[in-house]
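Fold this sequence, please.
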Amino acid sequence: MNNRTLLAVLVCASLAPPGTAAAQAITVGATSSTSDAPIFIADKKGYFREEVKVVNFRSAADMVAPLGAGQLEAGAGSASAGLYNAVARGIRIKIVADKASSPPGYGGTKILVRKDHVDSGRYKSLKDFKGMKFAMNAPGVSNTSTLNTLLKSVGLKYSDVETVDMPLPDHVAALKNRSVDASASVEPAPALAVRGGDAVLIKSDDEVLPNHQIAVLLYSEDFALKRPNAAKQFMRAYIRAVRFYNGALQNGRLDGPNADEVIAILSEATPIKSRDIYKLITPTGMNPDGRVNKESLAYDLGFYTEQGLIKGTINLDDAVDGSFVEVAVKELGPYRR
């Protein structure tokens, strides 16, 4: 699969004669993360009925404008404050399926503390997080809600810690050089920091917020309303791929029957190339029926609102459309591992 820039995709589409396959191609935004696995799997295994072009973005936030303008049919990323603010501004996008969640055993987001703090006694219990500097990646994303929930469990507030935003891969170096005290990191950073002897795992997301809705699949409203058959077919392929991905999961690792094939696909499509790293990390969970955990979305949205990050009124019933998942599950039947 050859990824193109968004500009190249749009130029090609604009030059194609009306009614050609190029004009009907489905353009999907991705972030080259391991939780984009269903998109890469569906493409590699030929599940898509129509031509699908994957365009890589730095973050899901960068997909919002193209989705709202109908330049992307689908996108995949965090259910963040930024996404909700876009919906509040009237940008026409819908949350249509789960892309990453944390069922028991599959908490890919982890709370870490520096190992020297454990060795010295600076950290003995969760209350010792007070006053510590935490590596984060952005305000108003799922791991901030995880950290807040963990702090609240021992009577601390989010403001009792100092947060420093940096790219997730940089968390490993920040813990190693002791520029932060702790982190709320996403795999593979936690596995690498622990393996390197620089951090200790305190809690995983699945222990703090079981079945936390971390990332979602998005549809542009134009795709959902004007090309409903293509949107349904895309979802059917997506759910088939999610189920194939679930066949790679076993005992909290990529050790299931499909693991080698999934690792090969991810190695080709994402920056992580080492099979050893895939075997080391805790993979993210995905609902094999694709259903979104609306209660989890509402919980996180409440925290983002408390933090003053939401600029407007959000009705989750308007933002979430589960109809495409339900059609796909009805066609595919119950999930059987």
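The CA atoms of residues 248 and 260 lie 8 Å apart. Residues 1-23 have pLDDT under 50 and may be disordered.
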